[in-house]
Design brief:
about 350 residues, mainly beta, Porin, 2 helices, about 55% strand, globular, Porin domain-containing protein, Gram_neg_porin_domain
């Protein structure tokens, strides 16, 4: 499998050159789009205070052929997004290529090759996101406050992979992805991951969207499996279940993760449960949440949080978050942040 990742890398570069070469004459529609996000926050805790920043800028070129086939090349440059939600920049590096991938869209579904989140993470990432970030907010950058398990559990993150997702049929979408090993083309995701020597990472994700009268809901399940290259650490095997309900400006969501002993010394199962409720009315938003993590008896961890959000301009928001965490360390964290999108 060690030869597969370089082959994928070469395939991406070759396909990118070919795609760009045919842009002017490939079909009826040629479209270039861009978007970006910048975040800054002052975080205060019993251990002191810190200032955090994160950013990402994404460019995408898409062509649509006469037959309706869509081809696109997407690249995101920024501060990294290791184990962040699909809509959040991270702080994995000062400057890196967060993601870069090729996409083929057709009536038969979506096929991607490159650095992109896997099928399980894409399926279960349902928590509402206010400006403060909530579960993946910058308060976790303070020593001692970060949960021992990410609220989405262990996955392949932005490792170079193949990803296929079916069209959404009667509300249901299925995704499957494969990464030869936990490594990406540019971003150094491996050093951030305990037991990082995974190989043959497979992910399966199911997502269902539906409505009951005025209530919209979303249900999801994800499964991740991989072999550990370290005989002292357990193979990766993670099960994820998630649900979200929306009514007017109200939302409620839950994510449950069972990581087993993935990437850890053999021992108790590592589990995580996250509950979140939020309300948005015009430019204002509020959220309450709780996360309970049990990596083993000696490291049980609970965090309780409340967040407020105020959109002061069309795409610029202020946030105020307060978090109480209890585990091997206990304390409070306060975050005052700003987020701008364009």
């Amino acid at each position: 499998m060690d030869v597969i990742l370089p082959r994928l890398s070469r395939a991406i570069r070759t396909a990118a050159v070919s795609l760009l070469a045919v842009f002017p004459a490939a079909g009826e529609t040629v479209e270039f789009t861009g978007r970006g996000v910048g975040q800054g926050a002052v975080v205060r805790s019993g251990e002191g205070h810190d200032i955090f920043g994160a950013y990402a800028a994404t460019g995408e070129g898409t062509i649509t052929t006469d037959s309706g086939l869509g081809l696109s090349l997407t690249a995101t440059v920024g501060s990294g997004d290791y184990q962040k939600s699909l809509d959040r920049p991270g702080r994995n590096d000062q400057l890196t290529v967060n993601e870069v991938f090729l996409t083929v869209n057709s009536a038969w579904g979506r096929l991607r090759i490159g650095d992109e989140d896997g099928a399980a993470k894409r399926a279960v990432d349902l928590l509402p996101l206010l400006a403060g970030g909530q579960m993946d907010g910058m308060w976790t950058g303070i020593a001692g406050t970060a949960p021992p398990i990410d609220h989405l559990g262990r996955d392949s993150d932005d490792a170079t992979k193949l990803l296929y997702e079916t069209p959404r049929v009667m509300g249901l979408r299925l995704g499957v992805s494969y990464a030869p090993k936990r490594d990406s083309l540019v971003e150094d995701i491996a050093k951030q991951t305990p037991g990082r020597f995974d190989r043959d990472l497979w992910e399966i994700g199911l997502n269902y969207q539906g409505d009951i009268d005025a209530v919209s809901y979303e249900l999801a399940a994800g499964y991740v499996t991989a072999d550990s290259r370290n005989p002292l650490l357990g193979d990766t095997e993670s099960l994820k279940l998630a649900a979200l309900a929306l009514y007017g400006g109200f939302s409620g969501s839950v994510i449950y993760v069972d990581d087993g002993d993935s990437g850890r010394l053999n021992g108790d199962d590592a589990t995580s449960t996250t509950l979140m409720a939020s309300y948005e009315n015009g430019p204002y938003g509020a959220a309450l949440w709780w996360q309970g993590v049990s990596p083993d008896i000696s490291q049980d961890y609970d965090a309780y949080g409340a967040g407020l959000s105020w959109r002061i301009l069309d795409e610029t928001s202020l946030s105020l978050d307060t978090v109480r965490y209890e585990g091997r360390r206990r304390g409070w964290v306060g975050t005052l942040g700003v987020e701008a999108r364009f």
